[in-house]
Amino acid sequence: MKFKRTLLLMFLLLLPPMHLVASGRDVLAVPVVPSHVEQQFSDFSHKWIDKIDRNFASRIGKMEIIPHSGGYLARYMQIDRDSISWSVKTISGSPLNYIGLLEYVEWTYECMAPTREAVEQGPFVRVRGRQVTEIFQYDKNKWLE
Q1: Is 16 a domain residue?
Q2: What is the pTM of this model?
Q3: In angstroms, rounded to a whole number, what is the distance separating the alpha carbons of residues 4 and 23?
């Protein structure tokens, strides 16, 4: 599915921009996305982010704990809610088809401690982040996963 989304994004980025002639000069046409489509994507995005956070293999409440250097290392992942941004765009040549772009950062948190009990308590620090961009298609009045 990610391959299809990546392929769609590459296709859309390679399309030439749509231009209109107005008053003797070129003006970039910006198709208007209906507000109900944007609202649907906003709702869809929040649910999608919640689903991802719940389904991380290592997450708060289900940390990965492994022996490390005579102690323990605990790790979990979480989406940075402050990093979330989204936009909806009209697909060229079709006024009823849209794509939604959802961007966010996934953070990995870790803690090292001498005992399993201590490592579960933290404190945890961010050790790496990954910028994620997902592309969703709108079809038949709904956003597709």
Answers
A1: no
A2: 0.73
A3: 40
